[in-house]
Amino acid sequence: VSLAPDDGVWPASYTAGTRPEERHVATADPVHLILPADPRHLRLARLTAAGIAGDLGFDVERIEDLRVAVDELCAVLIDEAPVGARLSLEYRVADGEVRIQGELDVPAAELPEIHPVAAELLDIVADDYRVELVDGRRVFHLVKRGRDRAGDG
Amino acid sequence: VSQDLDQHLTVVVRPAGDEIVFALAGELDPHTAPQLQEELDAVRGVGHGGTTFVLDLGELTFIDSSGLRVLISAQKEIETAGGRLVLRRPSATAHRLLEITGLVDHLEVEP
Q: Is A112 buried (19+), middle (13-18) or exposed (0-12) by CB count in 10 A?
């Protein structure tokens, strides 16, 4: 799949290297990652996010933001998860954004409390996020844009 | 020297004059933050009240809120005991996080 600038995927800051139309994005289809719900594996969630954002031409700071955001949200979901629980992640690309949804595969009665430091950080690094219970399971949604929307900032 | 089995984080502790230096390399996240906390707890009892504890963050490739929380609590405990905590030559990743959270104004950071 080749995406041209008019597809809205390429950030305004994209200038270096090959022309956008020469860059082939392999992430138009969703990417699925299933991990044991253990902090040991959070780096894989970060690595995948960084790879997808890098393919989209996100600048270094936005890639760092995304790494932190997905790490924080995954950490919330797997907090005190039972042994054997799994964390499913779906990474999607649309309109110049990376959208990530995470779900823990075990029933939960309530959401863990997000530590104030984590909440403050998420407010800074994520363009949009929410954590919720869906059908008794912990779920997060995360959006990180490759550039500011017109009128932002 | 401590290193988790997956080599996510390496902590090398060495005395250097009046300082105790913790050289961190790798990632500081919910998996490895307890490791750093244990290192700090183990060594803090060795230092006297005026000891300067230096965390060398030059090789830190990732840090999140769990890592920041270790730094914040360490600073409080060390200062309460009459010592200093210095964050030395933070990597670009670490420095940016300290900056955007405003912690750069509350923790002692050296280039």
A: middle
For residue B67, with 0-12 CB atoms within 10 Å meaning exposed, 13-18 middle and 19 or more buried, which class applies? buried
Find the residue in A nearest to B101 (Cα). A121
pLDDT digits (tens, 9 = 90+) for B43-96: 876 666 788 999 999 999 999 999 999 999 999 999 998 999 999 999 999 999
Q: Which pairing describes strands B52-63 and B19-28: parallel, antiparallel, or unpaired?
A: parallel
- Pick from A39, A40, A46: which is nearest to B62 by CB? A46
Tokens coding B61: 């490739």
Q: Looking at residue A22, what DSSP letter applies?
A: G
CB pairs under 8 A between A and B: 51
Residue A80 sits at φ, ψ, to 5 deg, of 55, 30
pTM score, whole prediction: 0.86
Number of residues in chain B: 111
Mark yes or no for CB contact B65/A115 under 8 Å: yes
Say whether residue A142 is in contact with chain B using an 8 A CB cutoff. no
Closest alpha carbon within chain B to A38: B31
